[in-house]
Design brief:
The protein is of the alpha+beta class and 252 residues long. It has one domain: Electron Transport, Fmn-binding Protein, Chain A (Pnp Oxidase, Chain A). The protein contains six helices and twelve strands. The strands form two sheets. Strands 3, 4, 5, 6, 7, 8, 9, 10, 11 and 12 form a ten-stranded antiparallel sheet that branches.
Amino acid sequence: MLYDKASFSGRRTLNIDGWHKSHGRLTRGNDGNADFPPVGSKATKNRESEVEAEASTELVPDGDPFALFQAWYDEAREAEPNDSNAMALATATPEGIPSVRMVLLKGHGPDGFIFYTNSHSRKGGELLSNPNAALLFHWKSLRRQIRIEGPLAPVDADMADAYFASRARDSQLGAVASDQSAPLDSRATFIRRYEEAKDRFAGRDVERPPHWLGFRLTPAAMEFWHDRPYRLHERRRFTREGDGWASTLLYP
């Protein structure tokens, strides 16, 4: 099933939750609570009827989760002021000790979601020893989240080389100079290593360090969360079933 962006805009949601009535209009309060007219008043009854009408409309449809991701991602790229491709990456040791950090999405499609990192880092070690992870996109300006879970594996060397070559030269040199996640005695040491890498590759292409890898997470589950008034949020979870997907709404 194909979708257009308007199918997922969600622009019809009511901006009621967390607003205050002030000087004859609703304004946002810092505490996120609403100060509404007394129960039983005409204004309250009108508000309740609006919420009831809105509540029956589903904003997160069934269908193809990759098409839905693409539609939301396209909107985020227009709406988010910084790093719309930022995502939290949660990993764990084989013993189940978790850790999480932000990384950048560098490729996506039906075969999975791709990011790059130093495999000598903490996350790299956890990804290699326990190749299962979770991603979370949170687009605050759109009041949406997407959670993605599944196994992952390194991308092939040609793909990693091609992406590394597309990076700014200073970023390439920084990757060469950094022993990511290892203890560092001073920033001066790191800058000295950067300058040494700069001299070593003067006049030629910077080679990708063999431990600098790309990983592709293949989704086993994808969950879409959409803000709704009065915390009556909408959640839909997709899970793989053979070559297709099954989905269900979840209680918020």
